[in-house]
Design a protein that fits this description.
The chain is of the alpha+beta class. It has 4 helices and 8 strands; from the N terminus they run H-H-H-E-E-E-E-E-H-E-E-E. A hairpin with a 4-residue loop joins strand 1 and strand 2. It is globular and about 55 Å long. It starts with a helix and ends in a 7-residue tail after the last strand.
């Protein structure tokens, strides 16, 4: 029988496959509003949020409570350490807001996720972000790609609520991939 503490430890395989990058070859490509219309993060648990600012991307690492998946994702039981791990890679992170967790204010640690929402930004919201980025580029005299390229892109606003003082909120291009697995098998 497997030691549950070993199954919980991300060092067993998550960090290795994230660094390797080939895990995304088997990932589902879907935007966050579409994913959340079919699945929920309710009652899931944060394992981490890996931000790669040099690439403008981030990966949410979540112990996924698949009991809510209407049996589309196997639910192994109530022992959290046996739940599948959901990896969600977000591309083109433009804004990220995180006000800290309650554990920073209290002695209680809680990595619980209450739920998540995501929506496509309006054309005006996209223009506002592009103009804001353009001002930053001008201020810093940087010669990077022009933010006007954002005008033709779909941008999303995603909010994940739970144990944080306020929700983790970010604006992003979309999701490159979504991958659910135990350390033994690919689930989704």
């Amino acid at each position: 029988m497997e030691n549950p503490s070993e199954a919980y430890s991300p060092e067993n395989w998550i960090w290795k496959v994230l660094e390797d990058g080939t895990i995304w070859n088997n990932a589902q490509s879907v935007d966050m509003p579409a994913f959340l219309s079919e699945y929920t993060l309710h009652d899931s648990m944060w394992l981490g949020f890996w931000l790669e600012p040099q690439w403008g991307q981030a990966t949410a690492i979540i112990r996924w409570d698949s009991v809510w998946s209407r049996e589309r994702i196997p639910y192994p039981g109530s022992l959290v350490t046996t739940w599948p791990i959901l990896l969600v890679q977000f591309q083109g992170i433009f804004r990220l807001t995180f006000d800290g967790s309650w554990s920073a204010l209290t002695s209680d640690f809680d990595n619980h996720i209450d739920g998540a929402e995501s929506r496509l930004l309006s054309e005006q919201e996209t223009i506002d972000i592009a103009e804001s980025l353009e001002q930053i580029i001008r201020k810093q005299h940087l010669d990077y790609a022009k933010p006007e390229s954002l005008f033709d892109e779909k941008l999303y606003f995603t909010s994940i609520e739970g144990s944080m003082a306020d929700p983790m909120e970010f604006t992003h291009r979309g999701m490159y991939g979504c991958y659910a697995s135990t350390h033994r098998e690919h689930l989704w």
